[in-house]
Amino acid sequence: MGKPKRGRCAKRNKNKATEPDELVQAPHSFVIHRGLPGAHILELTKDFRRVMEPYTATSLKERKKNTIKDFLSVAGPLHVSHICIFSKTSLGMYLKIARLPRGPTLTFKIHNFSFARDVVSSLKKQSVVEEAFKHAPLIVLNSFSGEGLHLKMMASMFQNMFPTINLLTVDLNTVRRCVLLNYNSTTKMIDFRHYSIRVVPVGISKGVKKVVQGKVPDLSRCNDIAEFFTKAGMLSESEAEDDPQHQVTVPQKLKTRGTLEQGKSAIRLSELGPRLTLSLIKIEDGLLDGEVLYHDLIHKSEEEREEIQRKREMKKYLKEKSIKGQKEKSELRVVTSEQKEEMKIDKNQEENAEVEDDDREYYREEVGEEPDKGKMITLGIEL
């Protein structure tokens, strides 16, 4: 026999085993929604998926029948390390961020939010480049260095949601977006912002910058090209950023026109959205369950915590006992069915033996001799 042919799925996934280490080790995420239906939560989920690109399931299809176990069952082969769940109740909207497969889980309440389309439409000069979404954003945390276990866990969770950056080998052309998280220690609010990053040259006039960047200048108000370059008042848009504190030295060659290696440039941010204002509600030790490590609204005494822990251990013990009992019952059913088969076979053998004895007795009474197998078969009696 020849070698069996591979199916279409195997042919499509022939490069699956050769995935680069950078892709395998990068944190991937699922962004889903639960709770009451509504267009707001659905659009907010899509906007957040846009933020987490490219290491997220952008076109993930959800159904009402899907449970968290369904997503966990496929998380391992897809290298998914985090799951973000937007939920809506009668009290408000919430965001849960959990580390797979064993937690912890952080629950945030969403106080205010703005969609990405509303943020972009409010800008005077919109700058949305699709190339920027081919690489993961840079994460920037502000004021998360205070005291408290919850601050450290929040900072660790947010940092691990995005790939780490090696400052010595990073390609600056891939740093096109950034996510800013600012924590206000007074109000305990977290401001979530999403920006695109541009590097622009400084120290040149607006007209020169247009020509350098390959744009067609408008010469309708000038007598000649020299007047366009020397016209007074045509300062660069980055004139406010000409302060040395706002300038950086670019150590690499960038694709941006007018930006020279080892030259002075300015960093510009253009907001992409969405905007979120969050507050931490609680931190759970497990995946969407387990011991509550922190709660912002409810504070329990040591005795209450011990009682909750005792109940949790008792519940775990009863669950394990129930599983063990079900396993023993299933094994007992298998043994009982095998015994029934054996008893059925033994019963058939006994019935056959009784019938054979009756035939022998009948032969003795009719013939008056000891039964012989050949003679009994001749008389039509099966032995």
TrEMBL record:
InterPro entries, per the entry: Brix, PPAN-like
Composition bias, Acidic residues: 351-360
Single GO MF annotation: rRNA binding
Top-level taxon of origin: Eukaryota
GO cellular component: preribosome, large subunit precursor
Protein name per Swiss-Prot or TrEMBL: Brix domain-containing protein
Basic residues: bias regions: 1-15
Native species: Acanthoscelides obtectus
Region (Disordered): 1-20, 322-383
Location of the Brix domain: 27-289
Biased composition (Basic and acidic residues): 322-350, 361-375
Pfam families associated with the record: Brix
GO biological process terms, semicolon-separated: ribosomal large subunit assembly; rRNA processing
